[in-house]
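INFO  loader      accepted 1 record
INFO  loader      residues=354
INFO  predictor   begin
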Amino acid sequence: MSRFFSEKYKKLVPYTPGEQPKDTQYIKLNTNESPFPPSDRAIRYASEAAHSLELYSDPTSSVLCEEFAKAVGVSPDEVLPTNGSDEILNFAFMAFCDKDHPAVFADITYGFYPVFADINGVPYEEIPLNPDFTINVSDYCGIGKTIFIANPNAPTGIALSVDKIEKIIASNPDSVVVVDEAYVDFGGESCVPLIHKYSNLLVTQTFSKSRSMAGARLGFGIACKELIRDLNTVKYSTNPYNVNRMTHAAGIGILKDADYTAKNCAVIMENREFASEELVKLGFEVTESKTNFIFAKHNDIGGKTLYEKLKARGILVRHFEKPRISEYNRITVGTRHQMQALIQAIKSILEEEK
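INFO  predictor   done
INFO  writer      dumping tokens
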């Protein structure tokens, strides 16, 4: 770092994104992208919007908000579109956390939470998951801190039922509970209906996974009007034009093609079950995933070794160095052909290890 870098950031450990290699053509199963492109309508709308890029985008994203609100069953003033769900999560750390309202989240969860806390100077606590990687609900009840729960969780893929999350929300009436639903469309239950019952609930969602728009960067916050007003104060104090014209248009197109999204999700879930069953046959331990990825380990080969051997065969998966999960790999669910190629490669690797 340079001698000009602020002291307040010198100890910051940034988030590490999944590999985006440019040197080799890989079967890319490491960053939980959709294997399917956006719908034709989304691409057409984005292309049309490109003709007006000399103009600023609508800072309110009014049409997009109307379409999304209709899709999730709330009103337009109960949603806030952002530059990916990472931005709404960062807004939440900025708006609802400080030294008097520290953050709390699981020790094994989305790796950006501690980064958001550190860059915003927010004290935080990491609560260990149970040995089976599930959340112990009682650990969060009445804790009196700003709570962040990825549901389904990443990288474990395990989902918590809505009634258990509601218990956490209800027991912390004076603290905001943020439920990060990046993967909810792959078999999880959404907490969105609870925003009309609890004024301390913020739900975040993304278009990066189920809606095939990882490269467009679009996310949403869903909450009561008062919380959305708080978050808009942060937005208009940092980046008023946070959703660009092409993403705004593509998002509308995707929402109008809901059947396309539902069909893709169904295929991904079928492929997830296929690959999970095949991995179990090969001796893997696999968590019960409600996401578009599989979290798996094998007792006869280390997680990092398997990751490296798959990469050498042109298949990328995600490996984490954190001690509790270092023997696991997170495998994005792709097309059936990609999953079959993965299984064949793993069979070959396991044969070599004998």
